[in-house]
Amino acid sequence: MSFPRYAAYKDSGVEWLGEVPEHWEVGAIKRFFTVLDSKRIPLSSEERSYRNGSYPYYGASGVIDWIDDYIFDEDLVLVSEDGANLLTRSTPIAFIATGTYWVNNHAHILKPIDNNLIYWSERIESIDLTPFITGSAQPKLTIDALANLMIAVPPSHEERYAIQLLISQETAKIDNLINEQKKLIELLKEKRQAVISTAVTKGLNPHAPMKDSGVEWLGEVPQGWKYGRLAYIADNIVDGTHHSPQSYPEGDFMYITAKNIKEAGFDFSDISYISTEAHNEIFERCPVRKGDVLYIKDGATAGIAMVNSLNVDFSLLSSVALIRPNYQQLSSEYLTYHLNA
Q1: What gap in Å lies between CA 100 and CA 336, rounded to an integer?
Q2: Is 320 exposed, middle or buried (0-12, 13-18, 19+ CB in 10 A)?
Q3: For a 10 Å CB count at each end of the chain, is N or C smaller?
Q4: Rg, Å, the chain Cα set
Q5: pLDDT tens for residues 170-224?
Q6: Nearest to 146 by CA among 78, 223, 65, 235
Q7: What is the pTM of this model?
Q8: Same fold, 9-155 and 228-340
Q9: In three state form, how does the secondary structure of 236-254 look?
Q10: Which fold has domain 9-155?
Q11: What is the 3-state secondary structure (H, E, C) of 111-127?
């Protein structure tokens, strides 16, 4: 969507802002907000465990818990103070808190000069904060850095409200389109699964003569097909470790659990590592190779299978089984399709 240009522009005097509409105001964030950080009260997870309730407890990226009391009883803008999300921006770093709620010390609290909260939160959200963030191990946006950050804004409440209204209307249209596409994607996923399931269980010829497999859940199969236990056509079937070794955010060897196994491949967004000693003990019993089928055998996601594409050693938890088919009889890819059917 394109917007008409303003009649005249001016140099903002701020390098990263560049030119802005001539009538807009340029100033530090603290000029347009009241900072309420002094009212924040952090509660440890242990303290919160004794205070379960109906009031949202906000942290750096939104609501992280629910407790029995509140600090604030007004709508405000919250901005992440620390955490990797300041750099990755996988979720918004500026968001609106409404109603009655509690805020810990990981989110800055800003009260804007008017009630155009959507405008103000989106104004901050649109800024690349990378140059103003300190710390490498734990990125941090200090209140001084945030409060002194220069922004350009329309001078009147009416113009800011008009921008807010446009944002709400246009994002609502886009959200509707996204939801429609999500529904279409789900339908296509169902069709994809049906095609795969039919191909691996009934074959490619819809008119092929069938026979009773003698197995209730298999039903009828094409007459020329063989069927039998998986163990008869696999060179190795073994699950991962039945004890939980000490794991770390970094380390010598990856420790793969059910949460890392997806039909499309590995999910490394939440990966743990273990020591060489722990890995060697697990790997001796469950030596994963490239091309093995990894199958989630228990838990909420039981039944998902994928082919190991990694040419590196790693360890498995017991929720994941290794299946190494006899490649003269069955390919890993075909077996994976069959298990996922």
Answers
A1: 50
A2: buried
A3: N
A4: 28
A5: 999 999 999 999 999 999 989 988 898 888 888 888 888 988 888 887 788 888 8
A6: 78
A7: 0.63
A8: yes
A9: EEEECECCCCCCECCCCEE
A10: Adenine-n6-DNA-methyltransferase TaqI; Chain A, domain 2 (3.90.220)
A11: EECCCCHHHHHHHHHCC
Which tokens go with 124? 């901050």
| Residue 196 CB contacts under 8 Å (≥ 6 apart), including other chains | 337, 340, 341
Q: Are 102 and 72 in contact (CB under 8 A)?
A: yes
Write the pLDDT tens digit of every residue in 71-92: 999 999 999 999 888 988 989 9
**In degrees to the nearest 10, what's the CA dihedral of 124, 39, 35, 120?**
30
Tokens of 203: 């074959």
Find tokens 């939104």 and name the residue.
Answer: 62
Q: Quickly count: other Cβ atoms within 10 Å of residue 273's Cβ.
A: 17
Rounded to whole angstroms, how far apart are CA atoms 227 and 210?
A: 13
Amino acid at 96: I
DSSP string, 299-310: STTTT-EEE---
Strands (E), 91-186: 94-97, 100-103, 107-112, 150-153
Q: What single-letter amino acid sits at 31?
A: R
**Tokens for 330?**
């069955």
Neighbours of 80 (CB within 10 A): 26
Q: Write down the domain spans for the chain.
A: 9-155, 172-209, 228-340
* Main-chain dihedrals φ then ψ at residue 9, nearest 5 degrees: -130, 165
Angle at 41 (CA atoms; ends 72, 129), nearest 5 degrees: 85
Which residues does 299 contact at the CB level (< 8 Å), separation at least 6? 258, 319
Closest CA relative to residue 33, chosen from 165, 147, 153: 147
Say which CATH superfamily domain 228-340 falls into.
DNA methylase specificity domains (3.90.220.20)
Residue whose C-alpha is closest to residue 40's, from 88, 7, 76, 4: 76
